[in-house]
Amino acid sequence: MRDNVETLYGAIDDGAIAVRIPKHAKKELEAYLDCGLLCRGFARLRCDRCEESRLVAFSCKGRGFCPSCLGRRMCSTAANLIEDVLPEVAHRPWVLTFPFPWRRRLAQDGALFGVLTRLFVESVERFNEGRAARRALAPHICDRCPRVPSLQGAGEARRHGQ
How far apart are CA 15 and CA 18, in angstroms? Predict the structure, then answer.
């Protein structure tokens, strides 16, 4: 990929490929190409006990393209949720998936995506409150239910909330 990115940019500039890469996506792509390269920056780590040292390349810390940084971010987020956020009770995931024709628009319109996601969360809360009432649970039981929205995307504008 690193060897061909300039060819891609040239083809786009010349009109040979009819796509437009948004500035934020281009910035993310270029950071990904520099991710993990010692020549782009590193830290030297040394063991105080055995005095062995290693160079560790800086990562791009990308949010949308780099599989290494995304994997690290997912593991870190999951550990934080399990260790510090969610109570030790059973959890139920809810998934909101949008029809394919909507996904490109939602990928570009954060406000609309936010409104639809809020409607979904409110519907789930009403469902849980009704269920708690039918089971004669305390009415405030749902006030303590943590909500962790998670935006996921795979491929071209395949955006859904979880």
Answer: 6
Please give the backbone phi and psi of residue 157, each rounded to the nearest 5 degrees, phi first: 55, 30
**Contact at 8 Å (CB) between 57 and 67?**
no
Q: Which amino acid belongs to residue 30?
A: E
Residue 35: its H or E element: none
3-state secondary structure of 161: strand
Nearest to 30 by CA among 50, 67, 2: 2
Calpha distance 103→156 (Å, rounded): 9
pTM over 0.85: no
Per-residue pLDDT tens, the chain, 162 aa: give them: 788 888 988 998 898 988 888 888 888 888 888 888 888 888 899 999 999 999 988 888 777 777 888 888 888 888 998 888 887 877 778 888 888 888 888 888 889 999 998 999 889 888 888 887 787 766 555 555 667 767 666 554 444 454
Tokens of 108: 């570009």
Give the angle subtended at the CA of 124 by the CAs of 121 and 127, to the nearest 5°: 150
